[in-house]
Amino acid sequence: MLALQEVSQSVSAPPADQALLEDLFVCPGQEPTVREDNHALRVARGLREAGISCSWFWQPIKIGYGKYDEGMALFALNQEITEADSFYISGCREYDNWKSRKVLGIRGSRYNDWFYTVHMGWWQDEEEPFSAQWQRLEQQLLLKKREARIWLMGDFNSPAGLKGQGYDCVRASGWQDTYKLAWEYDCGATVEGVIDGWESLKGGQVPGLGMRIDYIWCSTAAPVHSSKVIFNGTNGPKVSDHFGILVEIKDHE
């Protein structure tokens, strides 16, 4: 599975050719207009060109920088999406409010697990605090968590090194940090320096390396073989101000 956040398209771009959307999973009543420069569509085309089949799910959530439909995306690789889920975790739900937040989830034909892509707000935000969004997310997943294993993947805007904030909040709720479960792992830092939204950064950095604010959490203590940071300029080219995380699971050994 592949999870992406802040997946945008230009609001003024022409709609994409419908022939390119045959692998797009659409929930009834939620047919998004996918445009030519949609980044999830580009990823899906790139995967197909590399010989990797995929089924993908994208939803717009808000306007970004006044000119982008900004959303979230999930890709089921070499399998079909059989179910999808989406819900707001923010109190605000206006499309023109940049603080609107949703999570998207899918279940594929090869696994019983649920996989969610997540983009949380900041711990100190007075209007949309992390803790309130986390409570909404937990409540929405309560039944699924009892029936299946769940993976939460994405930008949690919470440095692992800051005590008493978002990272500790998630761990206290019983979720397992796959970085901590992994038998093999690297430094874990997913951003370096100061990025958009972290201009007043204080603390939480891996010395000389940056922050670990992007995670893959699991609802159970899964057998994680390795956790590696990718697309960081060393392990693949940089493609974003956030690096990626690649986790390998050894369920069937």
Supply database-style keywords.
single chain; alpha+beta; six-stranded mixed beta sheet
Topology (SSEs and partners):
Layout: E1 2-10, H1 39-49, E2 54-64, E3 68-77, E4 81-88, E5 102-108, E6 114-119, H2 130-140, H3 142-147, E7 150-155, H4 166-172, E8 176-177, H5 178-181, E9 184-185, E10 205-206, E11 210-211, E12 214-218, E13 224-230, E14 244-249
Parallel strand pairs: 6-7, 9-13
Antiparallel strand pairs: 1-3, 2-3, 4-5, 5-6, 7-12, 8-12, 10-11, 13-14
**Backbone shape:** globular
**Helix/strand/pairing class, anyone?**
alpha+beta
SS field, number of helical segments: 5
- Cα-atom Rg, whole angstroms? 18 Å
Taken in chain order, the helices and strands follow as EHEEEEEHHEHEHEEEEEE
The order of strands across the largest sheet is: 4-5-6-7-12-8
Strand % is 25-35%
Major sheet characteristics? 6 strands, mixed
Q: Could you give the distance between the termini? A: 19 Å
The oligomeric state is single chain
Poorly predicted residue ranges = 198-208
Helix content: 10-25%
Give the number of DSSP strands.
14
Mean pLDDT figure:
90
